[in-house]
Specification:
The protein is mostly helical. It has a single domain, classed as Ferritin, core subunit, four-helix bundle (Ferritin), CATH 1.20.1260. It is built from five helices and no strands. The protein starts with a helix and ends with a helix.
Length: 151
């Protein structure tokens, strides 16, 4: 069983992932001229903001401060979301959607890792599952948009 300190570290890791996603969706919404995509990206930016608030509140219940407002600068997921920034320079929707799918898959992998460790995360497993399922639905919508555009 992990110590409370390790559990807090895990939750802060997820908080960074959520903030990376929020920043990625914000950048993506500014990087496309397609109105439909802008709306979808803004919807998921708001979702990640709400998820981050939920996680922050839970971190506080574990006795820690959760002041992280941005993603993890050194994190692998952040580097993945930075691919969106590179895609933005060309304003190519395909590149933006591809980068988002990659970022979402990395987020899902991390959530699944912590959910698999049910014993250590039992008091917040439902929150993690709900957020993971929301990220999965976002990824599926992005993949649908990508296939709809014949990319």
């Amino acid at each position: 069983m992990e110590t409370n300190k390790e559990i807090i570290s895990d939750l802060k890791d997820l908080l960074s992932i959520l903030n990376d996603g929020k920043e990625g969706y914000e950048a993506a919404s500014k990087g496309t001229d397609t109105i439909e995509l802008q709306g979808v990206f803004l919807k998921y930016e708001a979702q990640r903001t709400a998820y981050a608030e939920e996680l922050r509140a839970h971190i506080v219940t574990h006795g820690a401060q959760a002041t992280n407002e941005s993603g993890s600068v050194l994190g692998a997921l952040h580097r993945t979301w930075l691919d969106i920034t590179q895609a933005l320079s060309s304003k190519e929707d395909k590149a933006i959607l591809d980068a988002i799918v990659t970022g979402e898959q990395a987020a899902l992998d991390k959530y699944n890792q912590y959910i698999a460790d049910y014993e250590d995360h039992a008091d917040h497993i439902n929150l993690l599952r709900k957020q993971r399922d929301g990220i999965q639905e976002a990824m599926e919508e992005i993949e649908t948009l990508r296939s709809k555009r014949n990319f």
